Amino acid sequence: MGSAAAAHLARRGQRVLGLDQFPPAHDRGSSHGRSRIIREAYFEHPSYVPLVWRSYDLWADLERATGRRLFIQTGGVMIGRPDTDLVRGALESARIHRLAHEVLDAAAIRRRFPVFEPEDEMIGVWEPRAGVLVPEECVLALLDQASKAGADLRHDERVLGWSAAPGRVRVETATGRFEAAHLIITPGPWAPVLLADLNVPMTIERQVIAWFRPAGHHKAFEPDRCPIHIWHVGRRMFYGFPALDDGGVKIAEHATGDPTTADGIRREIAPDEIQEIREDFVARFMPAANGELVLTTVCMYTMTPDAHFVIDRHPRHPHVTIACGFSGHGFKFAPAVGEILADLTLHGRTRHDISRFSAARFAGVR
Questions:
Q1: What SS3 class is residue 97?
Q2: 0.90 cut: is pTM over it?
Q3: Which member of 3, 80, 307, 327 lies 3.0 to 4.6 Å from 232 by CB, making a disulfide possible if both were Cys?
């Protein structure tokens, strides 16, 4: 989000300084892992769909401008029982916004995607425009555009704190102190530290991600035959991707990680954590993927109580703009969020509907 904001502001002729505590496209936060889902039939709420549309357009613009491949269209299918939040929400967004989609029963899912084995009571909501974003390439492309437009991007520069006075802000890092007229804070899982005065209750979750080499039907896992997929199984959600660049099939559980902090996260992954993914999801619903473990990693979700974002001007400092609490589903929106942050910084308003993302909705929440 910060990279996108820097690019938008620099292209609008602003003098921009970007600060990041890690090297470009790092794996220490929430924007790595080789793949991210982008989808239209947004089960979380129909109000996200126009923002998804804008994000599709901006990712395509960025691909053309940089020559990098950022998006792979695979289609997507949301699978669960008809009364689950995933299926009901996806259908609601699809119908309200008249999105191209199909409803598939379990037999149709098995026929069309032979590596999926849903239970008989499950249905799927198929959408053709969904696909995969390559997060590291996306971040590098945004940074490239920001730099070419004149932004001063400084990496390995950890922010220790910030303060605001009328008309000015100050940021202190491990190596210096900077002043400016405006400040944008996109802290990812460091939000509870850098935005402690915001009174927005946020928790950080540690998420385990695994890649498995298919045990069979290898061709059926290729991107032109295997879509991105999200499953609602009981009270849990799992998600996965096709096999990309012979790197195995990526599978993880959504939004049920252990509490952690950004600096204290345990990055080692225990065998029983992988076994749980195998037994509770892969062996039951994608047994052809249940082969050799290829790779593991962890990332972090910054969760708000309602799992919706916070994109707003700081309630006490109008020249400080914030974006945080993306709750495990924000990456796809990065270029649109950058546009919104630039709008709020320069004009105090944006044409995008961000009423759902107000920090004030948590007033009085403890």
A1: coil
A2: yes
A3: 80
